[in-house]
Amino acid sequence: MPRHDFSVAVKRQLALRAAHFCTNPLCLRLTAGPGSNLEKGLGTGHAAHICAASKLGPRYDENQTEAERRSANNGIWLCRECGDMVDKDEPGFPVDKLRAWKCNHEAMIAEVRQQGWSKSIELLRSNSMSIDLARRIIVLFEDRRVFWASFDAEFPDRVRMSLEQLRANLSTLRRECAPEGSMDKFIVALLKTIRHFFNQVEHLDLTKLQCDGGNSDWLFFEMALRTLRKSVGYQIGVLANSYSISLQGELAESIPTPK
Ligand SMILES: [Zn+2]
């Protein structure tokens, strides 16, 4: 059975694109360094195929041409252990997930390159931390019925309280982010969206407002809430997608899938 392996040049490109770090966001092990022999460098990385090099391999795609199978676009840089893991547990590591890892990792490396070294280390560390943060942000939204239960929207004051609490929770999470890092910026964007909603409904007395299709204030409130849900839903969808986190229950149904 023919194997469509990567050339040495392609492997080198993959290592460079990943800056020799394992691409798995939970690992990020550095795969290059000095050997104990003063003349030698030590490489422990591995150019893994996203879609297998041969028919019986993991994630094999029969529609790929030989050139596509051998191209850097079909490769991902991993440490040996992660390389082994993604190949032995194929269902746990589908093509989409590996592509998302690669895309995020390369974007992060591009960002890291703009910074000084100590800042780079901080960014790398914050990236592995940010998966945990991403999960916690999503849980906050799963816990807030205001985003998916239509019934809750019928109580504007409840909506207000829920959003205010959410704002406080998000601000607390921000303290754990690297300042100006991508997760920090993400939370700031969410806070801005929520603030925009509050600005819009500022002139309404939410404690008195009641569900009434004939009341223009009510209709205005309902529209503002719908816009908020859509905008927040989109942002949460992007977050979940980029960290390969699956959304649960009603929240999953109410969120548009970003393309
Ligand atoms: Zn690894």
Question: Could you walk me through the main structural features you see in this protein, from its secondary elements to its overall organization?
Answer:
By secondary structure, this protein is mainly alpha-helical. The protein folds into 2 domains: 8-115, no CATH class; 121-254. Helices cover 54% and strands 6% of the residues. The strands form 2 sheets. Strands 1-2 form a two-stranded antiparallel ribbon. It is elongated and about 75 Å long. The model has no long low-confidence stretch (mean pLDDT 87). The structure holds zinc ion. The site of zinc ion has 8 residues, from strand 4 and helix 3.
How is this fold's topology laid out?
Blueprint: H1 8-17, E1 32-34, E2 41-43, E3 45-49, H2 66-70, E4 75-79, H3 80-88, H4 95-113, H5 117-142, H6 156-174, H7 182-201, H8 216-242, H9 249-254
Antiparallel strand pairs: 1-2, 3-4
Helix pairs in contact: 4-5, 5-6, 6-7, 7-8
The chain binds zinc ion (ZN).
